[in-house]
Design brief:
FAD/NAD(P)-binding domain; 30% strand; alpha+beta; binds flavin-adenine dinucleotide; 505 residues; Rieske Iron-sulfur Protein; globular; 26 strands; FAD/NAD-bd_sf; nine-stranded mixed sheet
Length: 505
């Protein structure tokens, strides 16, 4: 039985990224038949890469996506393809030794090469990447980044020419970085996967897996192996303590005059900013992003305003064409977790903790996980193994990340949030309100209708916060997100928020 779906028109928030509007694909939603070699859960860059490699290797693969292909962060990324990473090679060397840093650099490069090898008709362009320092402190960091990158053989040099209006003290250039259209790329992978005989089913949330005798079952699907390519694995798991969810912001602006830089440019501030140019439907746009913060911990409206103020300070902006945000996961020791899912049956794999580098790391994770399913050795298996022992010096960071979680578990329960009555809730807004002594996550739509939900996150019981920009309820503990009707947008939750019937008070 097949059913047709024709667009990639949605992502995990109310705002629109330019990617989701420019693509139309038609896919067959096949139904289950027999036992598959591998069930891939998640239709982002990780899932489609793993699924394609396995299907091309002769395995029978079923890819299942909770929403639509590209719905997750791959549909909200800013799509830089780099040979450096948020965890610098200096940081990787200090935590994992020179050999670890070398392997990390090789993995990033392999991810880049996988994309370069498959890309076609997806706006792929090689461009120089610049990183500049504005203060003496940043200059010191830049020097460290340079030295460690050279040690692991990455092509980088000092430069005093950066196509930026921002005054800087010192800068680096990576001559061969790249950019692309992430959903056009997904469509290339998806078509190749289907052409090789793979199966895809959308709008299907996997809530759990039952394993028995080497066979894994999810609903009506049976498979010999499972890959959680869900960006963060569902439900309560070890990664709730090993990775912290972050929101990141992007705006795409039209310039009045002046040249759009033909490069990928990053500053070294914390949180940082970046700019790059992309042509969307024939129109040149400057993408400006950054200002990342922990999910549910800061005001998204403030972040967008700050981003716009920043770009207007340096560029002559005529209009803001797009603004959107998305989520990524920061691993506690700096490297991603890719491999056998801890505390799960043998043959269940996962990949998470890519930081802001999931184009390369998601691609290489697809390769690593497909090798594991095929029973082949992979040189990155040990370094990225989720079972690895955490280096001691990451422990303080671990405590810091999780102190927040502990805070929300306790403080939320004691009602530290300001609450308000339903009456004062204006159309198009959401708020935690109190009705008859009960705390409610309430949203009033434009027509005046109220959506009242329990604010208790179904993942681990924290209280969700309203995200006024993406119109979602975001959990500050582990990053689960829900739409205004309470439906799960982003894991690790797999159950919707409970609807509450209420009368306006
Ligand atoms: C604003 C922003 C900018 C970024 N820019 C860059 C960049 O320039 N370069 C770079 O390398 N990286 C960047 N990143 C990071 C990168 O985009 C991500 O790491 C990457 O897209 C993750 O891909 P994924 O396939 O693992 O996850 P996703 O793209 O999130 O896909 C996971 C999919 O799994 C589905 N799913 C989840 N749970 C279930 C379930 N239980 N059942 C079924 N399906 C499920 C989801 O609906 C989703 O579609 C950026 C991140 C952000 C937030």
């Amino acid at each position: 039985m097949t059913s047709k779906s024709t667009t990639m028109g949605t992502r995990d928030g109310a705002l629109e990224s330019p990617w989701q509007n420019t693509l139309e694909v038609s896919i067959s939603n096949r139904q289950n038949a027999g036992v598959y070699d591998c069930l891939v859960v998640g239709g982002g860059i990780t899932g489609l890469t793993a699924a394609l490699l396995l299907q091309q290797a002769g395995k029978q693969v079923f890819l299942v996506e909770a929403h639509r292909i590209g719905f997750g962060t791959t549909g909200g990324t800013s799509a830089h393809i780099n040979t450096f990473a948020d965890t610098t090679y200096a940081e990787a060397e200090s935590a994992f030794g020179l050999e670890g840093a070398q392997l990390f650099a090789d993995a990033i490069r392999e991810g880049y090469d996988l994309i370069a090898g498959w890309q076609q008709d997806c706006d792929f362009e090689v461009k120089p990447g610049y990183l500049y320092a504005e203060t003496e402190k940043e200059v010191k960091q830049l020097d460290k980044i340079y030295e460690a990158a050279v040690k692991v053989g990455v092509n980088v040099a000092y430069t005093d020419q950066v196509p930026t209006p921002v005054p800087f003290k010192k800068a680096l250039v990576w001559p061969d970085q790249a950019q692309f259209h992430p959903l056009k790329y997904l469509s290339v992978l998806q078509k190749a996967f289907l052409a090789a005989g793979g199966s895809i089913r959308e709008n299907t949330l996997i809530t759990g897996i039952e394993s028995k005798g080497g066979l894994h079952t999810a609903g009506d699907i049976k498979a010999r192996a499972v890959i959680y390519a869900t960006h963060t694995p569902p439900n309560i798991n070890l990664f709730n303590f090993e990775c912290a969810p972050y929101r990141s912001y992007v705006i795409a602006v039209k310039l009045k005059g002046g040249k759009y830089p033909d490069a990928l440019i990053y500053d070294s501030q914390e949180p940082y900013h970046y700019v790059r140019t992309h042509v969307i439907e024939g129109e040149q746009l400057l993408l400006v992003g950054g200002l990342d913060h922990k999910t549910g911990h800061d005001d998204p409206e403030k972040a967008f305003k700050a981003l716009e103020k920043y770009v207007r300070e340096y560029y002559s902006v005529s209009s803001v064409k797009y603004k959107w945000s998305s989520q990524y996961y920061v691993p506690v020791d700096g490297l991603p977790y890719i491999g056998q899912m801890p505390m799960s049956a043998e043959g269940i794999y996962c990949a998470t903790g890519y930081n802001g580098n999931g184009m390369m790391l998601g691609s290489v994770a697809g390769k690593i996980l497909s090798d594991l399913v095929l029973g082949k050795a992979n040189k990155y298996e040990k370094l990225f193994s989720p079972a690895r022992v955490k280096p001691l010096d990451s422990f303080s960071e671990f405590v810091k990340e999780n102190a927040d979680v502990a805070y929300h578990f306790v403080a939320d329960r004691f009602g530290i949030y300001e609450t308000d009555s339903l009456k004062r809730l204006s159309p198009g807004t959401g708020k935690l309100v109190e009705v008859d002594g009960k705390k409610i996550a309430a949203y009033r739509d434009e027509s005046g209708e109220i959506y009242a939900l329990s604010p208790v996150c179904t993942h681990a019981g924290c209280i969700v916060n309203w995200n006024s920009e993406e119109r979602s309820w975001d959990c500050p503990c582990h990053g689960a997100r829900y739409d205004v009707a309470g439906k799960v947008l982003t894991g690790p939750a797999t159950k919707d928020l409970t609807a509450i019937s209420t009368h306006e008070s």
